[in-house]
Amino acid sequence: MKILITEIWGLGDAVLATGAIRRLIEQGHDVGILCKPSVRELLEDRLPVVKWHVFTFPWTAHRNKYQFWKWPWSEMAKIRRSLSHEKYDAAVSVRADPRDDALAWLAGIKRRIGFRRWPHWKLVNEHLGIGAKRHRVESWEKVASYLCQENVDGTPELDSVIGSEDKLVLHVGASVSVRRWPIEGWRELATRVKQAYPMAEIDVIQDFDGYGSELSDIVDHVYDTVNLNQMVDILSSAKVVIGNDSGPTHIAASVGTPTLTIFGPQLPELFRPWNDKARYIEGKPCQYKPCKDYCRFSKAHCIQDIDAQQVFDVLSELLRQSEQSENTHTLK
Fold it and tell me: What is the DSSP string of 123-159?
């Protein structure tokens, strides 16, 4: 069967789908993916996909997404035609997003498989239930199990040839500012780590806008510009990766690196990195969570009020568990 996977949002979302996609390919299905350019950059050499449809849809922007007069209508029409030309037997999306379903319908794909947001939504004609609050990996497992007609393990997995080194990697950025833990928190965390583990190496991957460069005076190294393949190597070589709720923590977990994720407005039960060595700090309570990253306050208290001591305590426990499993005591 020729199957179109629709995952047009972020890197982390795409990484969470990789296990299910691998199982579908192993079962002999031809898989095409509709995604953003960054997803293709990350996965093209790691998944034997038959066709990449690459486009950044305007409604995936964080701001001004519905300025219809600015939408690239002609380019969107080309994408629709390319999807139609491939003659997919089925289209799959797990977001319960009517825009995904409409894309498949407009491309003439007969079988549209996924989850409904509303009970009588007709654009999904093979529905696996209402879009329930389950972890994204569990949703992909359900779809893959349905298509493969057997239970599927959808654990995300990316290939990397780099072995673990005795260093901590901090990925301090996020594509949306309300998911960023403040630099002051990162600085205090690095200070506490240096005091408790004097021999520890701490590296920082700064964000695309330079966020994180302020830590250069306290950490061992700051990576200012890295491509996605370089990032995979850096994350896979770390003893532990600490980061915000963003794509790199999912990448780290998918290559087997222990992770500590600092959550703010999102819900970890739905989007935590899928790895038995993954830990997280849940954002402070807020009546509006999850707010889809549109904070109603002048300050995102859910993440900015997280205390560095709390993060350090969870990190210390994760390091102890990691060292016990490896029977090493290197970060002393």
Answer: S-SEEEEE--S--HHHHHHHHHHHHHTS---------
pLDDT along the chain (332 residues), means of 10: 95 96 96 97 93 96 91 97 97 92 96 83 86 87 96 91 80 93 97 93 94 95 93 94 96 95 94 94 91 90 95 95 67 54
Q: How far apart are CA 169 and CA 237, in angstroms?
A: 9
The answer to whether the bond into 98 is cis (omega within 30° of 0) is: no
pTM: 0.93
Same domain, 177 and 322: yes
- When divided into structural domains, the chain yields a total of 2
The DSSP 8-state label assigned to residue 241 in this structure reads: E
CATH number at residue 192: 3.40.50.2000
Domain that holds residue 112: 2-148
DSSP-derived pairing of the beta strands 240-244 and 221-223: unpaired
